[in-house]
Structure formats: C-alpha cells, structure tokens
Write a structure and sequence with these properties.
The protein folds into two domains: 31 residues; 85 residues, Immunoglobulins (Immunoglobulin-like). It is α+β, with helices and mostly antiparallel strands. It is rod-shaped, with a radius of gyration of 31 Å. The strands form two sheets. It has a four-stranded antiparallel β-sheet with strand order 3-2-5-6. The chain has a three-stranded mixed β-sheet with strand order 4-1-7. The chain is built from three helices and seven strands; from the N terminus they run ααβββββββα. The longest helix has 28 residues. Strand 2 and strand 3 form a beta hairpin. Helices cover 27% and strands 35% of the residues.
C-alpha cells in the first residue's frame, strides 16, 4: 500500500475502528458493473437480432406478403394460411396480408375467400420475405369452388 493510500492516524486516536475499510470492496463493485454491462449487452444484442431478422434466419423461418383482389380490382378480406403449419393471416381493408414465421422450404400457401381457395407453392428462405404478388378471385371461381 502506498503512503497516499494509507489511512490517516487521526482515525486510530481512540483505538481501532469497529469497521475497517474493505480493500476488496472496489474490486467487487467493478466486477458487478462489468457483469451487469455484459448482461445488458447480451439482452440488447438479442433484441437487435430479433428486430433485423437474424433470429428468424437462425430459427429457419421466413415471411410472405401479397395482395388479394376480386375480378373487378377491389380489395377483399381473405383468409391466408400455410398448409400443414400453424401460420395464418387475414388480409386488411387494402387487400394486403403478411404471413410471419413460415418454416423455410417449399410451402403451400392457401388464400381462401367465400369458400373458394387458391393454392400457391412458395419457396420460403430463412430470414427472407417473399412477395407473392396479387391474388385475384374471378366470378367463375365461385361457381367451380377450389381453383389454382
């Protein structure tokens, strides 16, 4: 211990104090701060990976988007789901839909409206979003039922 770091003699004029300063206390505090910063860095890295799609790539899932219209070009509210997977969505008022968390690989996406369905083979790549484009339901589809 350096002379500058040693305690003043005034502290000991009445004898030894009951609680002597703990020299390892600073080290303990520094360790706690370093561990806290490391944990915070890991948490922030996790949320960053979740936001930018890296976790999806690691999990082997992707997304699909598209638009659903009738034969006159009006947006319709259709049910969209992935065959054999627990992934589904409803198109919004503008006809847009987005399926999230689709297992990667060749998948069959089914778009259904008024008991009529259309199926599309889509190649999903991990961490990517596939644009399926426009899905149009024709008046004849409602007479025949299922169509491709």
């Amino acid at each position: 211990m350096n002379l500058e770091e040693s305690p003043a003699l005034d502290l000991y004029k009445d004898g030894l104090p009951a609680h002597l300063p703990d020299p390892s206390r600073k080290k303990k505090i520094i360790r706690i701060v370093i561990i806290g910063m490391a944990v915070l860095s890991l948490i922030l890295a996790f949320f960053n990976m979740a936001q930018n799609g890296t976790l999806a790539a690691l999990a082997g899932t992707g997304n699909a988007t598209g638009m659903v219209y009738d034969d006159q070009g009006h947006a319709i509210a259709a049910k969209v789901f992935v065959f054999g997977a627990d992934v589904s969505a409803q198109s919004d008022q503008a006809g847009r839909f987005e399926l999230k968390g689709i297992p990667s690989g060749q998948q069959i996406v089914i778009v259904s409206y008024r008991n009529v369905g259309r199926e599309y083979k889509v190649n999903i790549m991990a961490g990517q979003t596939v644009n399926m484009g426009e899905v149009r339901f024709l008046t004849d589809d409602f007479l025949n039922g299922w169509s491709q």
